[in-house]
């Protein structure tokens, strides 16, 4: 019942609380790491992969589908030039995406990728992608953007179709949104 | 018999009645139980469900029987001298191990079923489903068909605040304007995503429930065995009209499906032609206002309200900056492109409807800007001119 | 501290550091919140009595479900348990008071402010929170009403209050036990509470983190939960349920402890398997940290994750089963009587078992995908919470009320309260199993006619249940004002524990001036 003893336990308990507070925020990077490892949610690794001349598995064909959508309030046209493509695992392919700013303002866009099934994101390697950085287009300007990728031949046997989805967001600045909202 | 005993035995009776009614329930259309549904997996889900129900109620019944027995046999009047024991290692081991075995037994079929449910490979066709506050957008990736499907139950049927609601139809709140038509006997892959908040696409007859998450794509699948109309709902709270965004799937034989695709494509071409025609001619203020009111009531009033005064977080349009101060072009752009909670009506409404509704919003409820917006101007705005 | 003098009137309550005064305030606060949350539930049931929208706009209906959940979880159940802990733990471990009496005072007085903030949002422009008590992003971030910020601040405050309460319990239990009371001699209520306290200090900071991220997402340009900025709305659910699942056990473990006191007392027989009860409680608490994603089987997790969370969740049934079997074994060959506390404790065991079996059903991923977000889930968690947490609390109040007030409550009216409640609780929540299985989703103000019958039963049951709690209020006031005469020191023939064997009724203002000897 001594005061010193109370303080001892009290500080330990506060210590646990503080640690858990840190943990709560640490869950954000942990979650991202976890997603990258397990492919939860098809969160894609947003970094360049190197194409290291992997062996192409010509006996297997995987269909890659492309889906694009545009977030609200984003005055751009945005689409892939093809809807789907057949590839052999290990083969490096390039797909072009088209974007056009049809507004009267200069606008910066950011495409956010996602892959279904999530498991496939682990075997999808992009050596070049417009989604790695932002695009800024002047009024009326249009652009063709390449995306180069290859499928790791280790891709599990049961996967035959992989869908790559891109959502285009307006990344100009958060301030300009609220003006239009009023 | 004391009151307690009566109620205890009543409880047992209650449980057995419920188990009885689960069996008695019509397998096709039950308001008591899960549906066996119309896919192989929905049948397996139903079987597994029934198995768990039986085992779990058996376990519960055993526990209740033991309690009932204790309550009757070991009451103070019957057993004035309590025993003193307070543990039994054998018993405790038994009731740790036996439940474990039961659980292991249940896990086995669950695992194989789950693996099958998650296997979306080798699909025959793909439909992209997008949840939007409070409607669903369907895009057939293999046949260039795209449409929005929303509740078709008229507001007169559900608005009963004055106790004067119209008589409700059989499929009240479970009917839509554009049904999703799908072929039977084909493995259909659904790519599910959302535009604003999280929704969940649920069709009980397919045992398919998948969250639609903005910015991400989820996939699931169904292979429908029987033609018919299957109804589902949004299963994740998504805002005000969460309870008002049903799903209706009409499953038809392949030939009929092919006809439907052709019809849809023809309709689309026709709609484009009509839209071009409408855009080409000049509309009078009266025409725009009349058409605009109709569109507004159907599409806009759920949030902004018929009187244009908004509701809660949904802003008022009456006297608002957008509808009176801003230029008609800016106003139209906002309707076309959407922003935050405002959907992109550019992909849902024709140019004429867009022009009409913008005109209506700028002139109704005393906004009186006198502006008219022509469909041709909408087409120009969409093209960035 | 050694004399029985204390201030009276308002300042007694405002500045009190006495564990009994604070316990009393917690209990009354929780009862008031219970009634407010209950009124909201009646608002929900009123709208759901028949198809069509008769009373509320759908948005206000969502507000009702949200506020009902938040108030019941954070305002009714949790403070009720803290109140019981305040009253009982010092008496049960032979201590004069809680270890940190001033912190005790703060932890209570934060609560009225927290809930004042939360409830004031009902009167704000744009309405109160309407995104469900689980406040999933982005519905609560990008799409939430302006009052969401008040909600966030309210959650922070109640989190701080819970953490302080929990720390107080931990310090008290570790430092203030009477000589001879080893850990494995502690009463079950103390055991369950100290485990609950550890859960609280581990998960309330996570909840605080989640709402803080919401706040920065809303106002400071971060995108933790927004795909546009590289965030992920599903991550919100992971963080929320990492808090949320242990939270579920925070709301039930103390009730386990209560049942473990009452059932032996009225069976006149010691608790069966004390040590396995302790281990079962600890393992349930441990498991609660590794099963959270079973609330999210439809978000599109990889199949390996779904399998893991299914199996881990099913394992929880084992220690939970052990507890139920132990209670039954406690009654076995005992000498049972059925006073009100025993009736509520029995109902707790029976109905909690029902909630448990539907829990096992929900754990199985392939079928959960059908049950998820339907009324079946609503039925499940109300079976765990109402007959579980709330009946547990009510049983505790009846059991210890004579010790607290020195007066016997009216057994007749207590039993009326019981029968009213048990019939109503089943009438309210049992039909929800069926409407859920048949396809009625959660959190909707309107439904197809095929669900009408079950919803009407639920609505009638809910109003009965609400009325039943008015009887409870009457019994409480009657007992405090003198009740059915003086209670004996031991109160119940089979009562065990220091509070019954070593303290008079009513218990003195400072429980144990001198530590009792525990053999």
From TrEMBL, chain A:
InterPro entries in the record: CtaG/Cox11_dom_sf, Cyt_c_oxidase_assmbl_CtaG
Residues that span the membrane, as ranges: 9-31
Subcellular localization, as worded in the UniProt entry: Cell inner membrane
UniProt KW keywords: Copper, Membrane, Signal-anchor, Transmembrane, Transmembrane helix
SUPFAM superfamilies noted in UniProt: Ctag/Cox11
Pfam family, one: CtaG_Cox11
Biological role: Exerts its effect at some terminal stage of cytochrome c oxidase synthesis, probably by being involved in the insertion of the copper B into subunit I.
Name of the protein in its database record: Cytochrome c oxidase assembly protein CtaG
Native organism: Pleionea mediterranea
TrEMBL record, chain B:
Name of one Pfam family that matches: COX2
SUPFAM superfamilies: Cupredoxins (SSF49503), Cytochrome c (SSF46626), Cytochrome c oxidase subunit II-like, transmembrane region (SSF81464)
TM region positions: 48-72, 93-115
Reactions that this protein is recorded to catalyse: 4 Fe(II)-[cytochrome c] + O2 + 8 H(+)(in) = 4 Fe(III)-[cytochrome c] + 2 H2O + 4 H(+)(out)
Primary location class: membrane
Cofactor note: Binds a copper A center.
Domain Cytochrome c, residue spans: 287-365
Entry GO terms, CC: plasma membrane
Swiss-Prot/TrEMBL keywords: Copper, Electron transport, Heme, Iron, Membrane, Metal-binding, Respiratory chain, Translocase, Transmembrane, Transmembrane helix, Transport
Location of the protein in the cell: Cell membrane; Membrane
GO molecular function: copper ion binding; cytochrome-c oxidase activity; heme binding; oxidoreductase activity
Segments forming domain Cytochrome oxidase subunit II copper A binding: 122-263
EC identifiers of the protein: 7.1.1.9
Family affiliation: Belongs to the cytochrome c oxidase subunit 2 family.
Function: Subunits I and II form the functional core of the enzyme complex. Electrons originating in cytochrome c are transferred via heme a and Cu(A) to the binuclear center formed by heme a3 and Cu(B).
Protein name from the UniProt record: Cytochrome c oxidase subunit 2
Automatic annotation (TrEMBL), chain C:
Function: Cytochrome c oxidase is the component of the respiratory chain that catalyzes the reduction of oxygen to water. Subunits 1-3 form the functional core of the enzyme complex. CO I is the catalytic subunit of the enzyme. Electrons originating in cytochrome c are transferred via the copper A center of subunit 2 and heme A of subunit 1 to the bimetallic center formed by heme A3 and copper B.
Record has Translocase as a keyword: yes
Ranges for domain Cytochrome oxidase subunit I profile: 13-519
GO MF, any single term: metal ion binding
Entry keyword set: Cell membrane, Copper, Electron transport, Heme, Iron, Membrane, Metal-binding, Respiratory chain, Translocase, Transmembrane, Transmembrane helix, Transport
Protein name in the entry: Cytochrome c oxidase subunit 1
A GO-annotated cellular component: plasma membrane
Family: Belongs to the heme-copper respiratory oxidase family.
Lineage, uppermost ranks: Bacteria, Pseudomonadati, Pseudomonadota, Gammaproteobacteria, Oceanospirillales
PROSITE patterns membership: COX1 (PS50855), COX1_CUB (PS00077)
InterPro entries in the record: Cyt_c_oxase-like_su1_dom (IPR023616), Cyt_c_oxase-like_su1_sf (IPR036927), Cyt_C_Oxase_1 (IPR000883), Cyt_c_Oxase_su1_BS (IPR023615), Cyt_c_oxase_su1_dom (IPR033944), Cyt_c_oxidase_su1_bac (IPR014241)
Organism encoding this protein: Pleionea mediterranea
């Amino acid at each position: 019942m001594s005061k010193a003893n109370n303080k001892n336990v009290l500080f330990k308990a506060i210590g646990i609380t503080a640690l858990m507070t840190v943990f709560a925020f640490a869950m954000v990077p942990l979650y991202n790491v976890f997603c990258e490892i397990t492919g939860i949610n098809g969160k894609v690794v947003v970094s360049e992969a190197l194409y290291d001349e992997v062996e192409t598995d010509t006996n297997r064909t995987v269909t890659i589908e492309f889906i694009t959508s545009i977030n609200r309030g984003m005055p751009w046209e945005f689409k892939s030039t093809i809807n789907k493509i057949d590839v052999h695992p290990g083969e490096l392919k390039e797909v072009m995406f088209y974007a056009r700013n049809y507004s009267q303002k200069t606008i910066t866009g950011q495409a956010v990728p996602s892959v279904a099934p999530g498991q496939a994101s682990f075997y999808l390697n992009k050596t070049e992608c417009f989604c790695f950085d932002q695009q800024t287009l002047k009024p009326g300007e249009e652009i063709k953007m390449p995306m180069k990728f290859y499928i790791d031949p280790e891709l599990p046997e049961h996967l035959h179709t992989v869908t790559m989805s891109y959502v285009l967001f307006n990344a100009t600045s958060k301030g300009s949104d609220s003006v239009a909202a009023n | 018999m004391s009151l307690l005993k009566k109620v205890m035995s009543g409880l047992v009776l209650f449980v057995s009645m419920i188990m009885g009614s689960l069996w008695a329930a019509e397998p096709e259309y039950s308001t008591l139980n899960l549906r066996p549904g119309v896919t192989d997996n929905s049948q397996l889900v139903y079987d597994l469900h029934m198995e768990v129900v039986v085992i779990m109620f058996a376990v519960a019944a055993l526990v209740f029987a033991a309690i009932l027995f204790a309550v009757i046999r070991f009451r103070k009047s019957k057993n004035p001298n309590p025993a003193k024991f307070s543990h039994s290692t054998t018993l405790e081991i038994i009731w740790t191990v036996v439940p474990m075995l039961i659980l292991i037994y249940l896990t086995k079929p669950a695992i194989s079923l789950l693996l099958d449910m998650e296997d979306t490979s080798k699909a025959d066709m793909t439909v992209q489903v997008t949840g939007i506050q409070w409607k669903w957008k369907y895009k057939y990736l293999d046949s260039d068909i795209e449409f929005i499907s929303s509740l078709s139950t008229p507001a007169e049927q559900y608005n009963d605040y004055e106790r004067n609601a119209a008589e409700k139809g059989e499929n009240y709140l479970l009917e839509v304007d554009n049904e999703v038509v799908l072929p039977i006997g084909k493995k259909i892959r659904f790519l599910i995503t959302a535009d604003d908040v999280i929704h969940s696409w649920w069709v009980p007859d397919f045992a398919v429930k998948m969250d639609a998450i903005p910015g991400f794509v989820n996939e699931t699948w169904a292979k429908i065995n029987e033609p018919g109309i299957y109804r589902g709902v949004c299963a994740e709270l998504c805002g005000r009209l969460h309870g008002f965004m049903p799903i209706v799937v009409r499953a038809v034989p392949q030939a009929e499906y092919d006809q439907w695709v052709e019809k849809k494509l023809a309709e689309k071409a026709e709609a484009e032609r009509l839209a071009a025609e409408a855009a080409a001619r000049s509309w009078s203020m009266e025409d725009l206002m009349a058409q605009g009111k109709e569109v507004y009531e159907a599409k806009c009033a759920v949030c902004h309200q018929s009187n244009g005064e908004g509701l809660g977080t949904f802003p008022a349009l009456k006297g608002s900056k957008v509808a009176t101060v801003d230029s008609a072009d800016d106003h139209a752009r906002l309707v076309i492109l959407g922003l935050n909670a405002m959907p992109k009506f550019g992909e849902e409404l024709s140019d004429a409807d867009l022009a009409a509704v913008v005109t209506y919003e700028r002139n109704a409820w005393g906004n009186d800007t006198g502006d008219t917006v022509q469909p041709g101007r909408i087409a120009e705005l969409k093209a960035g001119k | 501290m050694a004399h029985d003098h204390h201030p009276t009137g308002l300042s007694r309550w405002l500045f009190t550091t006495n564990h009994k005064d604070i316990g009393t305030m917690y209990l009354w606060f929780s009862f008031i919140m219970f009634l407010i949350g209950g009124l909201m539930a009646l608002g929900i049931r009123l709208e759901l009595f028949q198809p069509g929208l008769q009373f509320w706009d759908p948005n206000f209906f969502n507000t009702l479900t949200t506020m009902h959940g938040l108030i019941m979880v954070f305002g009714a159940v949790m403070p009720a348990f803290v109140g019981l802990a305040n009253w009982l733990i010092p008496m049960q471990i032979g201590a004069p008071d809680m270890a940190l009496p001033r912190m005790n005072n703060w932890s209570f007085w934060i609560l009225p402010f927290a809930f004042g903030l939360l409830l004031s949002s009902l009167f704000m422009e744009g309405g109160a929170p309407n995104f469900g008590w689980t406040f999933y992003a982005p519905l609560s971030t990008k799409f939430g009403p302006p009052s969401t910020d008040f909600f966030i601040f309210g959650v922070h405050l109640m989190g701080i209050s819970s953490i302080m309460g929990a720390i107080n319990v931990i310090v008290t239990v570790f430092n203030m036990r009477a000589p001879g009371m080893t850990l494995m001699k502690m009463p079950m209520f103390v055991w369950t509470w100290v485990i609950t306290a550890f859960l609280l200090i581990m998960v309330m900071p996570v909840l605080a983190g989640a709402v803080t991220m919401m706040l920065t997402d809303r106002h400071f340009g971060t995108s933790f939960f927004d795909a546009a900025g590289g965030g992920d709305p599903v991550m919100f659910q992971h963080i929320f349920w990492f808090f949320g699942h242990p939270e579920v056990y925070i709301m039930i473990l103390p009730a386990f402890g209560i049942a473990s006191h009452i059932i032996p007392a009225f069976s006149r027989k010691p608790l069966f398997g004390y040590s396995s009860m302790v281990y079962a409680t600890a393992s349930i608490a441990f498991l609660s940290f590794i099963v959270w994603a079973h609330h999210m089987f439809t978000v599109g997790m990889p199949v390996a994750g779904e399998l893991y969370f299914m199996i881990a969740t099913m394992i929880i049934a084992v220690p939970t089963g052990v507890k139920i079997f132990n209670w039954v074994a406690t009654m076995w060959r005992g000498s049972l009587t059925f006073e009100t506390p025993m009736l509520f404790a029995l109902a707790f065991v029976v109905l909690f078992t029902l909630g448990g079996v539907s829990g096992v059903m929900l754990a199985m991923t392939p079928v959960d995908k059908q049950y998820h977000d339907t009324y079946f889930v609503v039925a499940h968690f109300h079976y765990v919470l109402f007959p579980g947490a709330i009946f547990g609390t009510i049983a505790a109040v009846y059991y210890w009320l004579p010790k607290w007030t020195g007066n016997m409550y009216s057994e007749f009216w207590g039993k009326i309260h019981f029968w009213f409640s048990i019939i109503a609780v089943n009438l309210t929540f049992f039909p929800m199993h069926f409407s859920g299985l048949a396809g009625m989703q959660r959190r909707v103000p309107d439904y197809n006619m095929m669900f009408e019958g079950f919803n009407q039963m639920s609505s009638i049951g809910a109003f009965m249940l609400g009325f039943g709690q008015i009887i409870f209020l009457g019994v409480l006031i009657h007992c405090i004002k003198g009740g059915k005469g003086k209670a004996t020191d031991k109160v119940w023939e089979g009562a065990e524990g220091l509070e019954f064997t070593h303290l008079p009724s009513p218990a003195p203002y400072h429980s144990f001036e001198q530590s009792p000897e525990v053999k």
